[in-house]
């Protein structure tokens, strides 16, 4: 059975909703998601490190705050230094997602930060793999389109100033599901 | 008199429209824009290099093709290597813009490529300096909002599959004008 | 039989030497390298595009000029737009390398440019996967150490102002061989 | 009197030594450095935010851990969100530095993270402005050369597995001094 760890931080609940959508995608592909929610930068990460080590793949997620991943996810990354020294996550499949208030807002930089961590560990990176949503009339932004903003490195969702029950919109949630599905399929193929 | 060189490439006319808006902003600030249009990667860039050397600031622009600035602008960057060896553009004010089909589409990477060139030359970088457009309901994308996508490194405009007479939308063009204005003001202050 | 396309540009022969080392690594892993040398930004890339399409994996390489990949490789990337629209390279294994005059010199940005292209195509990215060379005394730079500079996204080699017969040094060439080997192994596993 | 805030985190004392060298450079240029040392991600940053607000320029520094700036500096960045909403640091001069164990090690990404924060705030970025150190024989790495690794976005220093009394080497410390000097001069010119 393929297991996919989803390690994420969520400040106001929006990124948590996206993480759950990623997990649904993993399940849809016949694999088992393992949701690991980071609470703060100071917590003990030993159990999460262990779960990632056991998983076939890992998907990291965080809100973009001030143009980069939130500090709690960065703190988790630093806690993986011991595993890095042993190259304990080498060749594991990795991917990432982030949520923020705007379409751009340097969220590509936040995704790159996740990618860099994966590369330091010698992991193998899987991007969104999604064609551009809505290319013939992007100014309209169609909230129901998959990958409506046109990201490639990972999945980006955008939430308005409203609760996680109504935002990010349906297209973004489906983008997240498809990321989970894609990572699960690649991991299964690679583990075979 | 403050002079601002605007060096750009445009494949289908959209980036040219944006470059002209940048020039309008420069004029609005009481400075003189110098539009320098790159035709192709193989052309002779000597005269453009000279113009940039004489200017108080330079704003580079190109469409984002396959996630990065177009090859003709990169070719121009390489043609500046002789000037770089002499540090001939050191301390000049620099900025950048790009246009593409989607909101994201790795356009932040394209802007970073322009920024990197500026840093190699020891120039001083001025970003968009624009507050986020439309933050309380970004899913609607308001085409008349300034910085509707929320970029910070430089200005990004987004054009639909239509002619440059109708797209990018008005908000994007005003973002470009404000970039020209901001660069002209910073350059004037710095030259004083 | 696993086939690995190696698409590269080389200005003065150093990057060509590295490309050949990558090819040796591919052979060492029991796969077949296909060296595809780009001559200039204006050439016809149709045959190269076809070769990449047929290969199980592709490794892109270029010198870093003014902080980014050389314009001829960027031109090749743009020539792949038709394939991108059909998502013809989706799920192919990809990796990258670059050569330059200094240890840093924004070569990480050049590798990121290659990575971004791979992500646009929906490919799967394999980094260097190499532990840091020489960590207990890096100031000495040991030219025979593998990954002596500590790159993770891809392989970076550094050449002095001397001919490609003597530089980049042996450690860098072995880093390149190991990248070829690693990509070939991952591609074989993934194709199984 | 020009005042330059130097906000930094240091894990084992090496980055602190670099921060002090930056401060020496500020003093050398006739300006006043204000060293603000971050202890951990959970501390109260209100006083530091206030100091940066009062300063003419700010230089951020942190060790590179796992390929990016350390979590405590990221936490400080997040604490500046209130100031960002008011655009309280707009047009301030900004720069950055980082220290790590290797020549590359994704330290360019760490500098980019600092740059992005500066751009979100609408600040103006000053890079190292240093010509490449040691270009005719970089494999030898000359520890006494200024900018021996060839960085442009900011200053990078490299320390061996030894105490901050002996590492990073003299060339790196002088690079840091020159960054402080450069930022102070640009800030003075800009404030005039």
Characterization of the model:
Four copies of one chain form a homotetramer. Chain A has 192 residues and is an alpha/beta fold. Helix content of chain A is 39%, strand content 21%. The first copy, chain A, has a single domain, classed as Rossmann fold. In chain A, strands 1, 2, 3, 4, 5, 6 and 7 form a seven-stranded mixed β-sheet that branches. In chain A, helix 1 packs across helix 6. The N and C termini of chain A lie close together (11 Å). In chain A, 69% of the residues are buried. Chains in contact: A-B, A-C, A-D, B-C, B-D, C-D.
Largest interface: A-B, 31 and 31 residues
End-to-end separation of chain A in angstroms reads 11 Å
CATH fold field value of chain A: Rossmann fold
Mean pLDDT of chain A: 94
CATH class descriptor name of chain A: Alpha Beta
The best one-word shape of chain A is: globular
Number of domains of chain A: 1
* Oligomeric state: homotetramer
H-E string of chain A: EHEHEEHHEHEEH
Helix count, DSSP H or I runs of 4 or more residues of chain A: 6
């Amino acid at each position: 059975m393929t297991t996919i760890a989803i390690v994420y931080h969520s400040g106001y609940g929006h990124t948590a909703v996206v993480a759950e959508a990623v997990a649904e995608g993993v399940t849809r592909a016949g694999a088992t998601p393992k949701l690991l929610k980071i609470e703060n930068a100071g917590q003990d990460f030993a159990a999460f490190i262990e779960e990632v080590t056991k998983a076939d793949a890992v998907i990291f997620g965080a809100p973009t705050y001030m143009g980069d991943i939130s500090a709690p996810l960065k703190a988790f990354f630093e806690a993986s230094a011991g595993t890095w020294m042993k190259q304990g996550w080498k060749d594991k499949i990795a991917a990432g997602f982030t949520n923020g208030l705007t379409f751009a807002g340097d969220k590509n930089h936040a995704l790159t930060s996740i990618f860099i961590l994966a590369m330091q560990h010698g992991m193998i990176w899987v991007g969104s793999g999604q064609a551009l949503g809505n290319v013939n009339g992007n100014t309209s932004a169609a909230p129901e389109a998959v990958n409506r903003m046109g990201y490639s490195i990972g999945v980006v969702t955008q939430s308005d100033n409203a609760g996680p029950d109504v935002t990010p919109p349906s297209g973004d949630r489906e983008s997240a599901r498809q990321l989970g599905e894609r990572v699960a399929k690649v991991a299964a193929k690679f583990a075979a």
